[in-house]
Amino acid sequence: MAQRTMKRTPRQQSDDIMRRMPWSFRLPLWGRLLVDVLAGFAVGLVGSAAHRMGVPWNVPYGLVLSLLLVGVSAWSARARSDGLGVGFHLIASGAAVMLIASHASNSRALIIFGYTSDAYSPIMQKAGIVWLLGMVLVQVLVLVMPRQWCHVPPRERYEHESTH
Q: Which terminus has fewer CB within 10 Å in the chain: N or C?
């Protein structure tokens, strides 16, 4: 018995590729942008809380990890919805950081915009400024890097998966 091979239309091939993409890539544009905004806001909150870890001991590992988190999240936004996604991510993360910075009391500030004191190290004095400017700089760098660097290929098809 001869096996029939069905020709697939470009639309069917496109649907198959989309099924093999991560869930957030399969959403419509407004859904992908919503994911970018939520991720940006979460990164802004987490990074603002974590950027001062290790700073009192002159080992700003929290700042490095926070900026790395921003970079990974912005890269995901760029891969998911290109430059528009990074723009929404930048706005949301900036809004989260400014929300935290504007609601801090004088004695309990999470983001300190720089001060001079002999009691604190230079890293501790400038960690807030480095966090704010670094967060923006990392996202701008993700925005200007080549599009190919942000490509997410569809996953490989499993052997038991149907092709139609």
A: N
